[in-house]
Structure formats: C-alpha cells, structure tokens
Amino acid sequence: MNKEKIAILGGGVGALSAAYALTKVPGWQDRYDITVYQTGWRLGGKGASSRRHFNGAWRIEEHGPHIWFGFYFNAFRIISEAYDYCQEHNLTPESPFQSWTDAFHPKRDGTFMEYVGRCWRPWVVSMPDRSGSPLEPGDPHIWSHILDAIGLLLDWHDVVEERVAGNATNKRSSGWASAVAKIYARVTAFFGQPVPRPQGESLLHKAHAIAKAPQMHPRARPSGFASLLVRLGQWLLKHLVKAFRNRLRRDIDHLLEEHADLRHFWEMLDIGATSIYGLLADGVLSKGYDAIEGIDFSRWLEKHGCTEYWSPPIHGIYDSGAHYENGKAAPAGKPNVRPASANLAAGTAVQALLRMFAGYSGAFSYKMQAGMGETVFTPLYLALKHLGVKFAFFHRTMALGLSHDRTNVDTVQMEVQAKVRGGAEAYEALMDPIGGIRCWPAAPLYGQLEDGAELERSGVDLEGSDSVEPRRIRTLSRGNRFGTRIRSALEANGSRRQHRADPICPALGNADIRAIMRRGQSARGGGLCRTVLNLAGHESGAGARGMARFCRGTEHPLLCRSTGRNPRRAAFG
Question: Is 137 helix (H, G, I), strand (E, B) or coil?
Fold first, then answer.
C-alpha cells in the first residue's frame, strides 16, 4: 500500500505537536510518510535555544527564561509522554532529565513591573498550589473557572481585611443586593434547591455561595421554574460581584496611595471582579467567548466599570504578547498611559486569564531547568525521529501556490539552503551531550554538509532571509503525488474573521478559505500526500490555539496563519 505523504512546514511547537499527534494514529507507520521541513539547523521556532562556547563555558542562548503555566494540560501531556518514550528506549541515558518533573520545577509566583515615581519597581504575585498536576486537567467549563476565580478573590479580600485591621468593612450586609440575596436563598430552599450557606458576611461570600449551588452549573440544565431560579441567580450573582467591587473601593480608597501592597490587592480584585461581572453581563455563558471578541480587552474592562483597566497586570499582558497595532506600545516615560494602539481580543484575554489564575492544576507555573530547546524540543525530536518521523533541515519555505479555483494548495516551493551528506534526512541536529543534556548548536554542524567549510566562511544566515547562491529550489506539487487536506484555526474557532495574507502566499488574501477547508475535509482525490502547513507564529494565535484543538481530537489539521487586525487573538497552551 502506498503511504500517504505528509509535509509539515516548520518545526515549532505547533508543528511538532501535529507530528506527534499523527504518530498516535493506530498503524500510522503503514499509512503515513511524515517529513518535517525546517529552515536552518534547529527546531523550536520562537522556543528555539542553543549552546555557544563562551568564556570557557557552554552558554545557553535563547529569548529568555521560559515557563509553562499550570493550565498547559496538552503541552504537559505531550512532553511527559515524550520523556517517557525517551527513557523507555534509552535515548538520553546520561541526561539529568529523565521525566518532565526533572525538567520542569514548580514556580509559584510571577512578577509585574510598575512605574512609580519615575522608576520601575517589582510587584510579586504569589499563587497557591492547587490539587492535582498539569497532567490532570480539571473541569474546563467557564462556570468552574468563574467559581474558582471567586474563591481566589475571597483569598485576596481576606488579605486586604488583615492589612487594614478591620477598617474596611465590606462585611456589611446592608444594601439591596444583600437583602435580595437573603430572599433568594429562602426562595430556592422553599423549592428544594437550596443555596449553600455563605462562609462569611461580605457580598462576595454571598456571591460565592450562589455560584456553588449545583443547579447553577450550566451542565445541570434545569427546566421550568427551576430554570427561572437559575437565571435569577445569575443576575443576582452579577450584581453581588459588582456591588462588592464598588463598596470595597469606597472602603479603602483613602488608603491606596500610601500602601502599595494594599493597592496591588485592590487592583487584582478590581480586575477579577470586573471580569466576572462582564462575562455574566455580556451573556458569555450562553454565547461563548466570541460574544466579546470584537472589543479590546482593556476597553472591555473600562466599559464594565474597572478603574484599573491599565494597571501593571493589564499592560504587562499586552507587553508580553506585543498586543499593539504596528508594534506601537506606550511612549517612553508614560507606561501608565494606555496607547491607542492597544489591541487584544477581550474574549481571548479573559479566557486566558481565567485559565491562568483559576484553571491550573498543581503549581501556578513551571520553570524549565535548561533552555527550552533542550527541555522541550530535544525529547520531542528524539522521540519522533526514533518513531520514524523524518526531518529535512535546511529547507526554507518560499511560497505556496493555489489551484486555479483557489480551493486547494497545488504547490509548496522551498529553497534547499544546504545539501546534507547522505541525503536531506541524514542530518544529526544535536551536539554531543553537555552535562548529559543533548543540546542544539548555535550554528550548523558544517561537517555534515557538502561544501560546509565554504558555507561557513560565507557567513550566510541560514535562519534569516539570506539565500545561498546558487539557489536550489525544491517544489512539492499536488499533481505529482501531492494532495491536500486543509483545516484552519479560522474554521476551528467557528467564525469568519478578517485575515491578512501571509507573505508566504499572498494569494490566500483573496482565496476562498472555507472552500479550501471543505475540500480538505472531504476530498481525498488521487493524491498520496496530505499537507500540514504550520505557518502560525507562537504569538499569532493560530498555531497554539489550533493545535490545542487538534490534540483534543480533531483528525487532520492544516493551520493557516490568522492575522486578523481587530482585535488580535493571543496564543496560549
């Protein structure tokens, strides 16, 4: 039987996740011939790292210290299985990293930087451990995240009360919201659906009690009068959270300027309470996160009454993902002023924050104990290669060609940057172990390349846009045993979005993306090759988001780059 050829363009986390998922298909060795085509000499994309000998030591070079958050359940599952495979087959016998727990250590805090008095000051946020591990995802439903988020806000509120020694009395039960909450508890008890007793006197405790009632979870799907009680409970929960936020601000406003730690907790409470209120007010429970994707996150917070819509935690999120139109961040010396270019989809941002702060298992985050290339891409590369996945380094994708009717990818054109002795797939990409760790070199291993010495002297940047002369072009053609099956993060997200063509294929700007995806889902044609195109950068959102869906069971993805301008989606594990 002829194997179906699969070309994966690029070697970032989305690409290797796709390759790994395909190797989980029963009997895949008899069905698929998988090749990963990678520019230059190393895998990793944005997560690539290398070692360079400097001042007598092998120095790690990468973008910076990398962590994975405790809600990266798919990522941890894959990397855990990769480490187990390497250990089982003795692929890294000398490595100190024999399991994922060796390579990733818990990190329970994060640091924001705030600009106060014309200087930058660290703001450390510590997060408690939760039950389980990142291999054990909890309930992914938004309601469970909201419930856990209210619990976290209660913990922060307890700290606020301790700091002000009882002067802030959000415990007061006066007010219409508190009165309605008491009436609601009596009504639900009368009809056999009681609300748990609040564990405190604050409005937030009352909101937490309502949210914990089993009938409030959307999966309960009550009917009749019970459904009416649930809708009333959601309405009351929304207003209790809002009233809690407003009252707390009045209680402690006079203390915030002189007490930085109190101000920090207030800002987190303000952002958290506003996010919960906004989700309920905008009907996200029934409509999904797409209901608020059309508005920028900070402006969405401002719309719902948040006074700290551009505090360090918020603009830190924008800075970390470069969520600014055309890269125009806040002007120098004015980091506390929201720039007009700030652009981050509210639905994506809130979903990420809920998962990050209320949806993790185990520790809040996990810090890699070496470069990301060594802790993540080395075990994946070794496991995939041992399984039979092929790697063709020094293949830079130049262009994609669409069919005449723009419903299929007809050609993939690549520049062969260097010829490997023994064939394109014979390149051994890793250095000799350093401290037992298999590492990626900072430059190609020229000894494995034809004319390697000459190529080294030329100084050509094989990870940049430089071309090697004379240029060698390799074209994969659908008419030459090359078929396509296409899925996209655009389709997976369930809605049409404005998208800008990637320079790798300008024709995609006017192509019928949905027609291409339908063709990919339904047509096997006569081709023997499926294309898996990973054109998405880590920050663009299509790669990580699409691959998360793929790893949850979507059969065959093709990831098209999604670069919709308004607003920008974030990527998260």
Answer: coil
Bridge partner residues of 342 (DSSP)? 324
Tell me what pLDDT residue 564 has: 32
Looking at 468-541, list the stretches that DSSP marks H as alpha helix, in order from N- to C-terminal side: 489-492, 513-522
- Give dist(CA 35, CA 388) in Å, integer: 9
What's phi and psi for 448, nearest 5 deg?
-90, 0
Of 4, 104, 12, residue with least CA distance to 546? 12
What are the structure tokens assigned to 470, written together? 């004379």
Q: Please, what are the averages of pLDDT over each run of 10 residues along the chain (573 residues)?
A: 86 94 94 94 93 92 86 95 97 96 95 87 93 89 92 92 66 62 72 76 88 83 79 90 93 89 94 97 93 96 96 90 86 84 94 93 96 96 97 93 81 93 94 95 95 92 84 80 37 32 59 51 32 32 31 28 36 36
| H-helix segments, 419-523 | 452-458, 489-492, 513-522
What does the pLDDT read at residue 277? Answer: 97
For the chain, the farthest-separated pair of C-alpha atoms sits apart, in whole angstroms, at 86
Q: Which two tokens stand for residue 143?
A: 């309601």
Cα 310 to Cα 330: distance, rounded to the nearest angstrom: 11
pLDDT at 229: 84
Exposure class string for 387-417: b at 16+ Cβ within 10 A, else e: bebbbbbbbbbebbbbbeeebbbbbbbbbbb
* Whole-angstrom distance, CA of residue 208 vs CA of residue 190: 20
Which amino acid belongs to residue 356?
Answer: M
Give CA–CA dist 153/144, Å, rounded.
14
Distance CA(230)–CA(263), nearest Å, equals 35
Query: In the prediction, which pLDDT does 480 show?
Result: 55
Contact 15, 36 (CB under 8 A): yes
- Whole-angstrom CA distances from 224 to 230, 231, 465 are 10, 11, 64
CA distance 558 to 179: 54
Radius of gyration over alpha carbons of the chain, in Å? Answer: 26
Comparing CA positions, the residue from 291, 481, 271, 478 lying closest to residue 358 is 271
CA distances (Å), origin 257, targets 116, 169, 252, 253, 525: 11, 19, 10, 8, 68
pTM of the full structure: 0.82
If we measure between CA atoms, which residue out of 31, 34, 28 comes closest to residue 6? 34
* pLDDT value for 227: 83
Q: What DSSP designation does 1 have?
A: -
Instruction: Report how far residue 27's alpha carbon sits from residue 20's, in angstroms, rounded to the nearest whole number.
Output: 14
Structure letter (DSSP) for residue 17: H
What percent helix, strand, coil does the chain show, rounded to 5?
40, 15, 40
CA 53 to chain CA centroid, nearest Å:
33
Structure tokens at 239: 């207003």
Distance CA 76, CA 275 (A): 28
